[in-house]
Automatic annotation (TrEMBL):
HAMAP family: CyoE_CtaB. This is Protoheme IX farnesyltransferase. Converts heme B (protoheme IX) to heme O by substitution of the vinyl group on carbon 2 of heme B porphyrin ring with a hydroxyethyl farnesyl side group. The gene is ctaB. Pathway: Porphyrin-containing compound metabolism; heme O biosynthesis; heme O from protoheme: step 1/1. The lineage of its organism: Bacteria, Pseudomonadati, Pseudomonadota, Gammaproteobacteria, Chromatiales. GO terms for biological process: heme O biosynthetic process. Keywords: Cell membrane, Heme biosynthesis, Membrane, Transferase, Transmembrane, Transmembrane helix. It catalyses: heme b + (2E,6E)-farnesyl diphosphate + H2O = Fe(II)-heme o + diphosphate. Belongs to the UbiA prenyltransferase family. Protoheme IX farnesyltransferase subfamily.
Length: 310
């Protein structure tokens, strides 16, 4: 009898999981996680002079990806009330009633458990501990506290999202050094222009739910100045991988071209008549980071590939 009931319960879980797989996927913020995992891969690649170790690379990336997905799912649970009121987020699975709190939390805990087991058993403890701290930093410190407390929320909270290159570095070397922190710094300084461009476009949404994002508390003109200043800082910081000889001239050229484009997008925000510019700048910021880390990866492997032919 007991077995019969258990089989029925498992059956119900599977039917639910199959019917709602798109909703579960959505609460993991898959596109964000993909870019996070890519920055982790670049962190791994730059950490070792030769080819990457297979086990640490594969399970490191999977662990970091699953932990980030778990953090994103917890963020959906905690934000469900405000998400229901904001236009951009009202159609998410929780506000729509497609999933409930218990289902999302069970899913998040499962992802977190798998991620931690993978990292501890198949990668190393340092990576597991740092990944867990990043998960707590985003899902709890940022979402529960910072987001509602201060307009510097995303500046401080951005530290969690900037961790993946460091996590990748730790996964393949078992340690963290100043080069890894330089990659962290790039994503950390990139985050405010990335998010504030979107926040300008969505200012009224955030005002409606009393979330103190910079354009709500300090106004749009002040936010534009901050975006521009952070972008200048970003351009300067992205030169450092070349200066410390972590990357070569190919990277430098790419970083300068991309930096000039980002500055142009940040400058265009000052034009009041360009109503579509905030979203253009936001979308560009995502492409910027993808290309910047992409060029870093290519720059790292070009000499190795050339050596193969010599
Ligand atoms: C505290 C830090 C961050 C904040 C507050 C933030 C905020 C946001 C928000 C609100 C969106 C949603 C836009 C929408 O729904 O249309 C978004 C999209 C996105 N973010 Fe961020 N972000 C942060 C850090 C990061 C990091 C570190 C990465 C990757 C390295 C990243 C990559 C992306 C990507 C790829 C998208 C597009 C997602 C899509 O189109 O579905 N973000 N970000
Ligand atoms: C383990 C690890 C590396 C964890 C970090 C994980 C992570 C998903 C970072 C991304 C940051 C992000 C998308 C913030 C937006 O949250 P929001 O609540 O401001 O945006 P929303 O309104 O779209 O939900």
């Amino acid at each position: 009898m007991k077995t019969f009931i258990n089989i029925k319960a498992t059956d119900g879980m599977w039917t639910h999981a199959v019917a709602h797989w798109r909703d579960y996927l959505e609460i993991t913020k898959p596109k964000v996680v993909l870019l996070l995992v890519f920055t982790a891969l670049v962190g791994m690649a730059l950490a070792v002079p030769t080819w990457l170790p297979l086990q640490e690379t594969v399970f490191g990336l999977l662990g970091i990806g699953l932990a980030s997905s778990s953090a994103a799912a917890i963020n959906h649970v905690i934000d469900q009330r405000t998400d229901a009121i904001m236009k951009r987020t009202e159609n998410r699975p929780l506000p729509q009633g497609a999933l409930n709190t218990r289902q999302c939390l069970t899913f998040a805990l499962l992802l977190c458990g798998i991620a931690m087991a993978m990292l501890v058993l198949l990668v190393n403890t340092l990576t597991a501990v740092l990944t867990f701290c990043s998960l707590i930093g985003y899902a709890i410190v940022y979402t529960v506290y910072l987001k509602r407390a201060t307009p510097q929320n995303i500046v401080i909270g951005g530290a969690a999202g900037a961790m993946p290159p460091v996590l990748g570095w730790a996964a393949v070397t078992g340690e963290v050094n100043a080069y890894a922190l330089l990659l962290f710094l790039i994503v950390f300084i990139w985050t405010p222009p990335h998010f504030w461009a979107l926040a300008i476009h969505r200012r009224d949404d955030y005002a409606k739910v009393d979330i103190p994002m910079l354009p709500v508390t300090h106004g749009i003109p002040f936010t534009r100045i901050q975006i521009f200043l952070y972008t200048i800082l970003l351009v300067i910081i992205t030169i450092f991988p070349y200066l410390v000889r972590m990357s070569g001239p190919l990277y430098l050229a790419g970083a300068l071209i991309l930096g000039a484009m980002f500055l142009y997008h940040a400058w265009k925000l000052f034009d009041d008549t360009a109503t579509k510019q905030p979203m253009r700048t936001f979308v560009f910021s995502i492409n910027y980071l993808m290309w910047l880390f992409g060029i870093m990866l290519v720059d790292h492997y070009v000499p190795q590939v050339l050596r193969l032919f010599n």
